[in-house]
Pyridoxal phosphate homeostasis protein
Amino acid sequence: MTHAAPSPRGEEIAAGLAEVERRITDACAAAGRSRSEITLIAVTKTYPASDVRLLAGLGVADVGENRDQEAAAKAAECADLALTWHFIGQVQTNKARSVAAYADLIHGVDRLRLAEALSREAVRAGREIGCLIQVSLDGRAGRGGALPADVLPLADALAALPGLSLRGVMGVAPLGEDPAPAFARLYGVAQAVQKDHHHANIISAGMSGDLPQAIANGATHLRVGTALLGRRKPFVR
């Protein structure tokens, strides 16, 4: 039986994945952690469903998107694959119903009104959806993410809502700063949340450019796009 030769795109993605895996392994060794503690999320926004299939064929089971229209269509097209879908961007409240239909883990919950909307739609869809509280790591309100002082009350409220499961926290390092101190702050918030919510043990932090610093500061989930799939093309609606 003969097998079809790998496509140029398949070879490109396989090479990107191999390099990302090398970086993760090296960072885990430097931090004294096991590779098994880390979940790699392939961020496939602006890339076609065919790339998702190539990644799945290489063993990647976690896929991240941040635009509902694109994510919903891609999840439907790849419904035959055993994938975990992560919604990693800001969720608009009016998109809660659509996102709740396919997302397994939502990384950007930063306000109670959104959590309540997701809860209603999860119950309506008969699903339980994991949620991460997005923490503002630059301390500026209005730029996405709950301020650290507001995270624990939001965690308690979210954990009580039907259809949702509080799974941990998420953060994005501020631009133009050393990411390590920001990720250390996120780790501190994560530890505080876990004191009252023992199963909320996910720390989503780190992207293509700062994954070693994220791993060194306790990240469990990395959101990697460019290093896996190449530079993004402009998004065309």
Summary: The chain has a mean pLDDT of 94.
